[in-house]
Amino acid sequence: MVFDKDIGDIILSELRKMHGRFDPHSFIAPRLRNKTLFEFLVGVMLSQNTSDRNAIRAYENLKRVLGGHILPNNVLSIDPSVIEESIRVAGMHKQRARRVVELAKIFVNQEGANAFIEVIKDANVEEAREILMKLPGIGPKTADVVLLMYFGKPTFPIDTHIRRITWRLGYVRGRDYEEARRFWMNILKPENYLETHLLLITHGRKICRAGRPLCRECRLRSLCRYGRDYG
Q1: pLDDT, tens only, 92-112
Q2: Domains in the chain and their CATH numbers?
């Protein structure tokens, strides 16, 4: 499907007018961009299927029980039940704790971890995605978050809010992850991927909510199928 390239600039402009600059402290991933890849992966994994607020609380709890540093050696040195309890607030704490331990076993070898990072840096986006998704607990969305926010590669993560907004706008027929990802990558300039991603999440939280969206307050309403039909 071919889209008008101007639509991306228009959407981003309207999102900026509604929400201003995004607050990086309200999202867990931007907070961790200067951390190790292992710590970044753990933080993003904690945000899966829960709010950033709960993910941040779980991350801080985990950091505390690990003595202030989320390192593979620290994870492997304590009982998994301690990890489970510390991240309980994020939900699915037993499953998440297992994945944290599995990741720690992979990244505990610093030489191997450094080599892995270099492979990701040198790979193109699609190759890097495939490599990351072989890690425990890393699906397409988490891989895209890692590539965009940690490695600065041009990809567009689709979370629950963005999936809902994309479908309501009417530019994609279903709620398929890859279809939505390609839509945003096609209409946006790569240098605007990160800002638009975070502004769309903000928009989904404040305006285009799952229940009772505030269509009358939305500057995207004239562009939106849902807003025109039901708002």
Answers
A1: 999 999 999 999 999 999 999
A2: 6-21+156-230 (1.10.1670.10), 32-150 (1.10.340.30)
